[in-house]
Write a structure and sequence with these properties.
The chain is α/β, with parallel strands linked by helices. Helices cover about 40% and strands about 15% of the residues. Helix 1 runs antiparallel to helix 2 and helix 3 crosses helix 5.
Amino acid sequence: MPQVKQPSTLRSIAMRKFLKVVCRTCTTWITELSSAAEAGNRNYLQYAERVLNECDMLHEILTPLPMHILESLSTKAIDKFIKIITLYDVKSDSRLKLAPWYDKEQHNAICKNMLRSVLLPCTSKHNTKGISSSFAQRLIIQTLDSTCNLTSLFLSTLTETDHSAILASNIRHLKNLKFFQYAYHCTDQVVQQLALHCKALCYINLTNSSSVTDVSVHYMLELRKLTYVHMLGTSVTSESYRLLIAELPQIKNFITFTPSNEILENIAAENLSTITYFFGSVGNMALLTEKCPNIIFLTVYYRNEDLSHLTVLAGLVSLHVVIGNYELFNLTTGLNGIGHRLIELGLYMVDNVNVTDIINLCSGLKRLFLEYCVFVPLEYGTVLNTEILHFKSVTSLKIKSNFQRQCNYPSMRYYANLEVLECVGLDFLDNDFMCGALQQGAFRSLKYLLIKETGNSALTMRIVDLLIRHCEHLKVLGHLKTWQQLTRSMIRDLKQRIMLRNLDLRIV
């Protein structure tokens, strides 16, 4: 049975209550601003002035607090304020913005000041993951002058509006920036400003920004601390990318959908000694291993390359293969040479996968990902040695399947030390299989179990009860809403039972 949930510490209770009070302040501002707007221009202007003053007061109250309190409060408060203010802006479309006296600049100024009230000196990161609102992204960018100690800025989502010009004009405030992502809308102008003002930058991701051209490469060459550059989907040519990876002194990653041999041919191996991560299309594996002998993490994409050459990569611990044929990749030979060194192995949409190879040759593997692969059936009469090292070493297993690429991997019951198990669309994962596995002692170490049904599998509440009974370390049980035999009321009752027994188990 999962552990009993430990009581919250006094500090965490106090922080939650304090955060609630701070966020309630923002909600109050917005509620009263909306009411004032309905009452007319005069009322709105009076209350707007009051809100601006209270924003300053809140900032003055928060700023002197001890650093350990501010660090716990800041990120959560910022995220909540952004969501609250963005919702207010959306609702204003049908009320405030239709008023004949509506002033867009004033509205934006109020929204910016509400956010500024919780932008404290300790604010070190912004991340828009999960936020697709153009308004929210603009709000963050327009208040960058209040986050001079920011070290991480991730604008990772696609928005309707291009804010590159506003961003370029605000980057000068970010002297301490180390990590930067601006997907989809980045431009050469933004990169130029990064090169001018962000000399500590070590990570830059400009994915799918077609307005980033070869001009940006020359700016990035001025950022001598760069170790990670991601430019897939930009307009940077192979020639300029070749210059970038050859000239940046600390570059660690090499990412390309152009066959790597077209980029590597004219670069000396000594200029690539820092490359430890490769993702993309290879073209000539022998050349890649010769020019980049220090690769630790390798992802081969699209092409059926002969992976027997990987033996020379003495430091390789992570191998991922995306789309191809196991036999044409010559993976049996490859794993014979490197399998014992691998910590992580991932195969995605690979045909003719020989799972016996993986089990026998990958003796120290910690993480195994098999997604939408087609497995070679085990020969009739094959008996697996369940005491083999592979079954003891793997702690994380992810297997995904669908109707077109259905896999059968009953060997998962033999993994003795699994802590994470994620399965999608596995028809063999039914009541009989799970009951048998659990009653034989499988999955006893599980902490996270995520099973998503997409086809014919039909797990019941009996499996949930067995998991709770046998898996004392279980922390998360996920995707129960996809289990066809469970109703909403069953899941609701389950959550109630867990709460009444005070178990440290989340249903997601």
